[in-house]
Structure to design on (162 residues):
């Protein structure tokens, strides 16, 4: 009996089946309130770190700082974040005739190098221009040609921000 019970919990439910082919198109045409989306990848540390214990600890520390140094105006509270951007473009989708495979997209076959983008904003919404850190020895002005106005571009052999 034990073995049958274990097997029943390990195997998938027979009611869970994939949608029939073309069902996604049907859903898109018929139901305007539903759409199929590809979820955005999220680091495991984000949902697990934002919990009641950590939030309480943050506000206790903020309260200690307010007691020690007085209230800090919101224009002096800044949030800085960094993200790695790839230099290899992702080809866009194209429409082609069924059965033919002649459409190509020229792109780099390598994984490319990651460019670090650092952005900062304060509690009232002011921001400073972003900074791009290229993993190179020398920086050239054309590297920030189509970047937002005021973008600071620098080169660092390792590409690290510290």
């Amino acid at each position: 009996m034990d073995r049958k019970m274990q097997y029943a919990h390990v195997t998938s439910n027979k009611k869970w089946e994939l949608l029939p082919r073309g069902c996604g198109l049907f859903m898109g045409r018929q139901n305007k309130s539903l759409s199929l989306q590809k979820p955005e990848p999220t680091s495991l540390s984000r949902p697990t770190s934002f919990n009641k214990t950590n939030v309480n600890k943050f506000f206790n520390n903020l309260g200690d700082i307010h007691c020690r140094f007085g209230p800090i105006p919101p224009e002096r509270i800044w949030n800085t974040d960094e993200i790695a951007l790839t230099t290899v473009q992702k080809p866009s989708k194209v429409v082609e005739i069924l059965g033919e495979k002649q459409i190509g997209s020229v792109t780099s076959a390598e994984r490319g190098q990651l460019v670090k983008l650092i952005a900062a904003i304060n509690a009232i919404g002011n921001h400073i221009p972003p900074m791009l850190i290229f993993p190179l020895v020398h920086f050239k002005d054309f590297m920030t040609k189509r970047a937002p106005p005021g973008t600071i571009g620098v080169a660092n052999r390792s590409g690290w921000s510290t």
Notes: The chain has four helices and four strands.
